[in-house]
Amino acid sequence: MLISCPDRAGIVAAVSQFLFAQGANIVRSDQHTTDPGGGSFFMRVEFDLPELAARRAEVAGAFSPIAARLEMDWRLALGAPPKRVAVCVSREGHCLNELLWRHQSGELEGDIAMVVSNHDDLRPAVQMHGIPFHHIAVRPGAKAEAEAAQLALLQAGGIDLVVLARYMQILSPAFVDRYPGRIINIHHSFLPAFAGGNPYRQAYERGVKIIGATAHYVTADLDGGPIIEQDVQRVTHRDNAEDMRRVGRQIERTVLARAVAWHLEDRILLHGNRTVVFD
Amino acid sequence: MLISCPDRAGIVAAVSQFLFAQGANIVRSDQHTTDPGGGSFFMRVEFDLPELAARRAEVAGAFSPIAARLEMDWRLALGAPPKRVAVCVSREGHCLNELLWRHQSGELEGDIAMVVSNHDDLRPAVQMHGIPFHHIAVRPGAKAEAEAAQLALLQAGGIDLVVLARYMQILSPAFVDRYPGRIINIHHSFLPAFAGGNPYRQAYERGVKIIGATAHYVTADLDGGPIIEQDVQRVTHRDNAEDMRRVGRQIERTVLARAVAWHLEDRILLHGNRTVVFD
Amino acid sequence: MLISCPDRAGIVAAVSQFLFAQGANIVRSDQHTTDPGGGSFFMRVEFDLPELAARRAEVAGAFSPIAARLEMDWRLALGAPPKRVAVCVSREGHCLNELLWRHQSGELEGDIAMVVSNHDDLRPAVQMHGIPFHHIAVRPGAKAEAEAAQLALLQAGGIDLVVLARYMQILSPAFVDRYPGRIINIHHSFLPAFAGGNPYRQAYERGVKIIGATAHYVTADLDGGPIIEQDVQRVTHRDNAEDMRRVGRQIERTVLARAVAWHLEDRILLHGNRTVVFD
Amino acid sequence: MLISCPDRAGIVAAVSQFLFAQGANIVRSDQHTTDPGGGSFFMRVEFDLPELAARRAEVAGAFSPIAARLEMDWRLALGAPPKRVAVCVSREGHCLNELLWRHQSGELEGDIAMVVSNHDDLRPAVQMHGIPFHHIAVRPGAKAEAEAAQLALLQAGGIDLVVLARYMQILSPAFVDRYPGRIINIHHSFLPAFAGGNPYRQAYERGVKIIGATAHYVTADLDGGPIIEQDVQRVTHRDNAEDMRRVGRQIERTVLARAVAWHLEDRILLHGNRTVVFD
């Protein structure tokens, strides 16, 4: 259960009392308040409740008056069935490969239900894993058609999360609106730095000593959506722009895989343009 | 409030309900369970309760039946007055200096009430900060007398926490028993490696690529007490044993300062020979 | 060209003068001396020399008197043809997968010529990459036969480097002697700590805050060979032994991949039980 | 000896041959070329040569024809006497304190000859170390006079390096021109991000997961000078802008101290707007 509401006394008591009365056993509980005097309050409670799937409507109904009284935004995310993930790629496979590997080794909750690409290059690698691969070319001037085809695929597949794993296309605001807080992108730079094209070349020209990557939710504001995770690695004067690109790819795949895992485990709450990531 | 008890349903509800009824506003709450089915449960709740200092006995009395029913080990740690800290040093000042600096810049809760040393070298640096410096020489064969003098000082000073900041003497079990879970040592090695003398020479001989330091509570088992914090830094073949010692000193002061800060903020719970450190 | 010799004045001058006279252009040159007064000297010079492959014997012959005068251990490693690598695995594929991925994406010099395993589990993943997979079961009491079969394969394949990528068998001294300084193992622990079995369980029991992995050359001294690379990652009280194992696997694959890359780029010189790794 | 020149064959041979002929013993030698085919070449050679101080002019004279032939920019930096450092501060003492501590513990070559401040707050801390403290107030509209007074002090003191240790004044281009490549600033942000005022507030608002600091040489281009060193630390949603400022201060003092140490050890070569930092 994920909850956001204005901070006040008694929230934890109300929620934990409710869950106890329902017969739930709390496995994990995290809270965060931006300011004890009048800020926002965030809570994530992970609990075991036998037959929750069957009783979901009943439990939610019983919680509604509490939620209304405390002005909560809330949702009850079930551990099962697993979330269905679509991965969008272009030509570079390093981020996709990392997701496939972690999925295969059981480190990623959720199912990778399909891979969608504007090129056909990565088809064999995907099909090897028994995952459907869809090639939807994006022709100049026909982007709307391509997006319509993608959306149809995503909806037919019952997709919960869209992961842009080095997908070199900018999504239209209309597309983004269909999956609010449910599209994750990997940005090949330590945002907010070098936000434009070819950031490794920019990083090399500027002589930086550390490069990074950023995973964020996609919003209408390009590269400006809520940051989920960042990481960095050292470089030296010996690294040219190509070396930085290579180091950057290692960071990208790690950072994206972490962000996707946390989303699939329902660890992330949105707060304006920031994220609360419970560990 | 810090709580350890066997895990079962209803603990969070009972504690949060109790605090709500007392008029407390929960600022921060963290929990940890080692195993949802029958493990140990740990909880730290930070709350505002007006006039708690005056009402402490009353609040504690009201909580006692709940604690008894749920088989809790618990304590109520007040934010004020600040804890009183004694720092024990020998000749090397880097860890002491870090603590003094963080204290002076307001990054360390608690008061550094005294510095005790078996040498007189660091007296000027300590007195510059207006902190009493006590030189208690430890003569061969007269260690018991020295420890008795130290204990008298610590007790006269109302000391809550003893920090061994590169104090090159081994405390007797009797001394350790007087301050259970309240003596912190910095070990100049990444435990459990190189647990003996001159670890930087050992690390150099072994050709390691990373060195570290470990802050831990002192128990009767030398270097074996519960680990609070560790950190590391890279070294290369260019670093000789002396370079590693220098790098190691930087790690030591950072790691010890973090461990002391967390203890002073009552963030640490002991669990057998392990620590739960709430962030 | 990789050189080890007693340190004295004039080594760099002699080597660089020689290479200049041969018409070589030095691309990269690194040196290291353990002690300017009478220590050991290490040098790695990377240079372009047209037709070196054809002129190798001639160039080596011309250098011999210089090497003899300065008491050098030296070798001339050609960039081409690529070194041939055999990867030994058991059931866990994470380290192998990382090597395959880096090889495929052009980040690893050398050719992965074969994969040898005492189990058949990873055959499909290997054959997907078009790499020969050899299953050599190691039956109790028949280890010598298995090693003989392996050695025959390695020699028939002209193997230059053997990588133990979570290969759960201890090689006999006789096997190790056949590939001195040419077998790399990944140890699932931050050596010298927790050198025995199940290190993640040991790490959890000890309550460490950081875990690591170590890549080292294999010698007759189990887990005691020269360390090539180590890395670490933070864990907390929330991580149980299984979580630590998962984190550990990520470190293992990165650390092993780095060590293998450096070996294949001829960046590593052995110095007793330590390595000099030129960057 | 530090050398920059166009890359070509024979440079290393010429330099090492020259030093050998002069009777020098090379302790350390590092090279870097941006591009083996026609790029820039950088070299740092550290050597022992008895009586070099006395023979400096002679040695330099003998090297001049070689330097001219190979179009070198070069300088011969003597290990002694130590460089003289002036530290400029405002009110915050953390970076200054770190420099004083490292100097006192022998980890910083060079002498801290004076501290100059536009406020009087840090006088006691500086004088405690026996270092002259000069208070030069910067009145609105009278910045030129203040800078003139500072320059007079620096020149009277024979200052080699100016360190801006959280000095909250922008130096005029005329001032900067007097110490080209010899003024180091610590920027309280991971450049190029958040280059304006109050970067920790900006970082908090943007919801970043990592913050950093940057040490760079000061040029006429504010915050745009060659980067010497950067480092970062993780933050979470639990850290508010003030927490980030506190974490940032720890990074600032470490990063600045490293950059100053490397400069004092003559490890840094400038290459356009980038640095080559030999380790």
Question: How many strands in all of chain A?
Answer: 13
CATH top level of the largest domain in chain A is: Alpha Beta
Structural domain count of chain A: 2
Strand order of the largest sheet of chain A: 7-6-5-8-9-10-11
Q: What is the H/E order of chain A?
A: EHEEHEEHEHEHEHEHEEHEE
Structural class of chain A: alpha/beta
The fraction of residues in strands of chain A falls at: 25-35%
The largest contact between protein chains, plus residue counts on each side, is: A-D, 32 and 32 residues
Q: Within the CATH hierarchy, at the fold level, what is the topology of the largest domain in chain A? A: Rossmann fold
Span of the ends, CA to CA of chain A? 15 Å
The CATH homologous superfamily of the largest domain in chain A is named Formyl transferase, N-terminal domain
Question: Quaternary arrangement of the chains shown?
Answer: homotetramer
Contiguous low-pLDDT stretches of chain A (5 residues minimum) are: none
CATH architecture descriptor of the largest domain in chain A = 3-Layer(aba) Sandwich
Q: What percent of residues of chain A adopt helix (DSSP H or I)?
A: 25-40%
Using the CA coordinates, give the radius of gyration of chain A.
21 Å
Return the average pLDDT of chain A rounded to an integer: 92
Largest pleated sheet of chain A: 7 strands, mixed
In DSSP terms (H or I, runs of 4 or more residues), the helix count of chain A works out at 8
Shape of chain A: globular
